[in-house]
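Exercise 7. Predict the joint structure of the components listed below.
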Amino acid sequence: MYQLKTLYSSRWTQHLFAILSCTFTTIVTQPLRELVDLANIVMLFLLTVVIVAVWLGRKPAITASLFSIALFDFFFVPPLFSFSVNDAQYLITFAVMLMVALIIGHLTIGLRQNAIEASQREQQTRALYLLAQRLAGAVTVEQAILEVQKFVSIHQQLGLRVLIPAPNEVLVTPAGIQAALSATEMLVACSVFSSNQAIELADESPATLVLPLSGVMRPRGVMLVNAELDMLHQQRALMEAVASLLATALDRLHFVDVAEQNRMQIQAERLRSSILAALSHDVRTPLTVLYGLADTLTLPQQNFPESARETACAIRDQAIRLNNMVNNLLDMARLHAGQVQLRKEWQPIEEVIGASIKLSGADLQCHAVKVHLADGLPLVEFDAVLLERVFCNLLENAAKYSPPNTDIELSVSSDGTEAVITVCNAGEGFPKDKLMQVFEPFERGNAKSNVRGAGMGLAICRAVVEAHGGKIAASNPAGGGACIRFTLPLGEPPDIEPEKEGEA
Amino acid sequence: MNIPEFSVLLIEDERDIRRFVRQALESNGCQVREAGTMAQGLSDATAHKPQLVILDLGLPDGDGVDFVQRLRSWSNIPILVLSARSTERDKIAVLDAGADDYLTKPFSVGELLARVRASLRRSRSGNMLESPLVNFGNVGVDLARHTVTKDQQPVRLTAIEFKLLSVLLANAGRVMTHRQLLRDVWGASHIESTHYLRIYVAHLRQKLEDDPTQPTHFLTEIGIGYRFQP
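Solution:
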């Protein structure tokens, strides 16, 4: 079958077949000449022409019709065995034969072409379906691209390269895939990637078609196809289909990746919060026991010598310090993990200041806190629990880094858009080169200072203030001492219906 | 200062915490019964009818709110809650459910005893003021005549301010959540308007405290509510 096809495919053998067919018809019909009317003989020749047209196409059909006319004229039309024609009406017969041959040939060719195209299309569809199947199974970008390259090289003898964006949005060839690009190609690829429109480089040989791989959300890369220009035009629709399949596959891989990352993140988050929860419970329980037992020993009912009581006091104080440190570390971890949900409420800021001063009582034994509130301060929206942490840390720091029996100044004012809070002490001030760093975790103003602390306090203050949309800064005022100033944005406080004034 | 014969039920799963709490209470003359789980605590409370329940919120076998609600269904025994820090929501829930007070771990024995005494006083007086005349600091309040004096000078309070003051006085020493105060003073439809409450507490401080920025009587329990300290 295959050999026969190649035989037919040669133009000369096709014409030879046409001639042979006509000769065969002549030989077969020759004996019938006396029995059958000439018109029917013409029919047999026409049949031959039709068969040749169907079988071999238009040009052999023309050959067959011309040759049939010649044979018919020579062997059947009187005078026999001569090309001259007695009756002019046979000229009409010849013309009709020729016309019929041409028309049939033409129709046949169309049909054959359609059939070939249909079968090609069917093959393409099947191949695309297979490609889609393989792409669906691909687990890496490289694998997907290799599948497409394999498909294109098997089916179309085209060159194909793919570029995908690196994390920094620069187009690169994926790892493990060979593809060299000229500078022009690279430029065009970039412009296709950013515009999401296909571009054809027709001037070069072979020509290049650059197609965008358009994903659902954004382009996933570019596909470059090399071939001769007419081949490229022929295959453009197919290549576009391949590009869209590849884009879908890359999209899928991307979202799988995102889902996987999310899953990992959620797992890490879950681990972190369970560690935090375990720490906050498991560390606090022994601390409570330690603190409570030591505190019991310090009670006057226990008739211990003074030195033992002092030891118990020291154990108790260390336990409470350890507890504060754990609190700070846990707060810091929560704030950094973004786990803290602000429970903002509109409230007067002096309330949290008063509560913080009371809570920091033990640290403020040797210091008086002077609070200055500007008149007419509006309500501020903040999370009171977190802001209490800020004030406690600031007051504790201010007390720690200033000589005993000096005042701590706490003032609040408003400039219309934000509340400004400053906490100042009469200490040495911050080291001049570290005014910014003091807010970093584990950073202490003076590393060699004998004041104890892990350096978490100001870091927590910054995290809380920034979570509220405010700013915090350290400074050494000209008059001496150290100041921390922070701001809280003022909003539109809710209306308060005034109560009718009157004696209760 | 001994606490007169007084029975306490201590519900706490950590043995060493039970130990020092028991020691502190017993050395002050209390009878202490211990329970390691909430279920046992509930049955002990029913069987022995203690005069005070100290409840740890971190018990593995139950929910503090549920315990308080079940106890409150038949009893007014004062409940003192022990809780870890950074669990404001849980604290508010048990206080709203009817717990009287809370202590944050770690706590000192002195604090614990002070709270126990305050609870005892309140339960003795049945949450009612013994006389319409209340004095704290340099402030005198006549609840019957609706008059308030500070340093013998009359102080004018608005109707709401006076109502808030009388609710706080009636619950002296006890933590009142924002919700409870709003319900008692403004009514159930106002329990979300915490800014009103904060503003009126600020008014009371301005009128009655020596230094409103560092109050000694109208104390803020951050994130939870207020406590009036006589």
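Discussion. The CA atoms of residues 118 and 173 of chain B lie 6 Å apart.
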